[in-house]
Amino acid sequence: MDEVLQQVAELITEVVGPDFLLGVEITRDTTFSDDLGLESIEFVALADKLNAHYGVDLVAFLADMDIDEIMAMSVGRLVDHITARV
Amino acid sequence: MSRFLFVVPPLTGHINPTASVGGELLARGHDVAWVGHPGTLAPLLPDDAVVFPAIDDVLEADIKAKRERWLALRGMAVLKFFWEEFLIPLGHAMEPGVAAAVRDFAPDVLVADQQALAGPAVANQAGVPWVTSAATSAELVNPLQTMPKVDAWVRDLLHEYAGGDIRFSDRLVLVYSSKALVSGEFGDEVAFVGPALTHRVERVEFPWERLTGHRRVLISLGTLNGPAGERFFGQALDAVADLDVQVVMVAPERPVPANVLLRPSVPQLALMPHLDAVITHGGHNTVCEALAHGLPLVVAPIRDDQPTVAAQVVAAGAGVRLTYSRARSTDVRTALESVLGEPEYAAAAELVRESFIAAGGAATAADLLEKVVAG
């Protein structure tokens, strides 16, 4: 498993709480909206963790996307963004 | 005397403030009418209120059915559905009825709820001055500002529909909140009048004799929620079962502990003076009604403007925020014990209450509407 993917999955689990991910394996295809149902406050918490860990600005990353891209935003796309930056 | 026409969607939270401001205008001797869905308006308005139809029962049932699908969506899909499947089609559907009402009633001013886009569209065509009734303060602070492409998408939809951003009148935008909750710089046309609570009509029965607890809490997720509501209700019931509080819970029939009074609906405004705290999804009306009574809040926002409203409550120090889809009974219990037990929450809520009183509510709104007529 990709190291960044594993780390991002851990950060998501910290934000959401492990109980809610029982039986859900976070893969590159996992979407933030549909699959994880990330709430706005959880998104903010994840942004803080990504910033602390990688110095990546999640808000700025999303700012370039249109509504369909944000809806389809997957863990894989975030991982690629981080990998390209770090 | 002047003539005021309120244009509203079939949503209780959006009709309520207009019922109050309209009631105040009626009390001052003006002619007032509403245009929307008569069946949704009837229980919220005085018996002799003048109502023009713009939404029939078939369309209203269709909107309700759509809402069921909408409640199953998450994240940005909610916003896309809201605009493409609800707001813009509702605008088109309401136009003939609103146009007929403008023709028959001949208002001096049209007061359009922010989610009744047919109001400004028809008013512009007919050359009638229109103002905005912002049932929530969230649009003012623009939650989409960090997503410029999404923000532009919304503006494009509005331009396509009506040739401009008709969410905001340039004459007057009535906001039923205060600067104690909403921070930012706003134009002179934006008026923070506080919640409009006078002249409101509540026809729901309530067993007042059963309110016996010395500390009382309302749990309400408003008139719209969905499957995740079932989970949250369950956690909330577990949270309060062993607490020394009496709980009024607005929810469909289910088994509840002895200290919970379950009702399908309540006269919420009348109930407020009897409460010590409110657990809510963060609907703008419920939050501001609670704060208008100095009540601290536990807010678990579901969607739409609710995260923004929840953030306002937390920033004001008047409550605790929970994660709606994941909060456990222990989280709900800890949050409730905090707002009930730590006096700074109630003190912060009291400061908001004072700001609401200073804002003036429906009377201030009516003053401003009279000024629009005067020009």
Automatic annotation (TrEMBL), chain A:
Signal peptide: none
Domain Carrier as annotated: residue spans: 1-86
A Pfam family this chain is assigned to: PP-binding
Keywords associated with the record: Phosphopantetheine, Phosphoprotein
PROSITE patterns: CARRIER, PHOSPHOPANTETHEINE
Keyword presence, Phosphoprotein: yes
Keyword Phosphoprotein attributed: yes
Name by which UniProt lists this protein: Carrier domain-containing protein
Organism encoding this protein: Lentzea guizhouensis
TrEMBL record, chain B:
InterPro entries in the record: Glycosyltransferase_28, UDP_glucos_trans
One GO MF term attached to the UniProt entry: hexosyltransferase activity
GO biological process: antibiotic biosynthetic process
PANTHER family cross-referenced by the UniProt entry: STEROL 3-BETA-GLUCOSYLTRANSFERASE, STEROL 3-BETA-GLUCOSYLTRANSFERASE UGT80A2
Name of the protein in question: Glycosyl transferase
Biological classification of the source: Bacteria, Bacillati, Actinomycetota, Actinomycetes, Pseudonocardiales
